[in-house]
Amino acid sequence: MKPPSLEALQDRQAIMDLVHVYCRAADRRDQTLMRSLYHEDAIDDHGGFFSGPAMAFIDKLPDIQAPMRILHHNITTSTVVQDGDYAEGEHYVLAYHQVEDNTAPLDLLIGGRYLDKYEKRDGDWKFTYRAVLADWATINQPSTVDLTHPMIAGSHIGRADTQDPSYQLFRLLQPGQPAPLP
């Protein structure tokens, strides 16, 4: 087995960065950043929730995310296979959502996978297709999250908007922008 070329390693890292920045864009509700991750003709398939042009999905995100107090996407196991300027990836995801409900907030924890297709166009890797699969889900209603518990007193508390503490701390990670690379 011969070692991968430097270009292949750079391409793989660019794809992994794309996958991770997607999570940040979703969790910070940053539609500008989210839009920059897809090619204009890309498809997003969230099953019965939404299936169609990715840009139309992103247009609907503010309404979809409106009842969600907390969003927290975590990538675990990833497999990426590349053939020139085309690649496919399967990424396991743990996605937590605290959702406002008529009676009480609920916790939705989904264990699932992203099934992705990517293309490198004009030197940039972006999604051309993303499907979301749910392998399992756990729901707690009412929510069991307690951000006022004394055990976390004084902790910085994350937010799903531009008031998130990361925006005050970081100079490079700002709304609509992934970290610039050399």
TrEMBL record:
Residues 8-130 form the SnoaL-like domain. Transmembrane segments: none annotated. Gene3D superfamilies: 3.10.450.50. InterPro entries: NTF2-like_dom_sf, SnoaL-like. This is SnoaL-like domain-containing protein. It comes from Parahalioglobus pacificus.
